[in-house]
Amino acid sequence: MDLENQKRVKDITDKFGAENVVVLLGAAEAESAGLAAETVTAGDPTFAGPLAGVELGLLVFHAMEPEMKELYDPDVYDEQMGMMEMVFDVDEICEEMNEIRGEFCKFL
After folding, report:
1. Segments forming the whole domain that contains residue 33
2. Total tally of structural domains belonging to the chain
3. Average pLDDT of the residues of the chain
4. Burial 62-84 (b: 16+ CB within 10 A, else e)
């Protein structure tokens, strides 16, 4: 997660409270999604950005997780994300996100 997005997440969390913020990710790989998820829950693991050492504990999901997918209009999902679902390793992404939420999320 780049420094500008880290600042946005921190500002939004400061404004609305961490318990009222959900982060939705769309990274193509589990490792990338996991790194971004860790950043908004446990703090920037590279210690380079605004979230370095800041444990927000935010609730975080990937756009293709079943919990999110059931919220979307099926036709819109198929049109916008259906092809990507065939390319992404959705199971690996879901596993990574569940691990991060289980370890670092404060608002389950």
Report:
1. 3-104
2. 1
3. 96
4. bbbbeebbeeeeeeebeeebeee
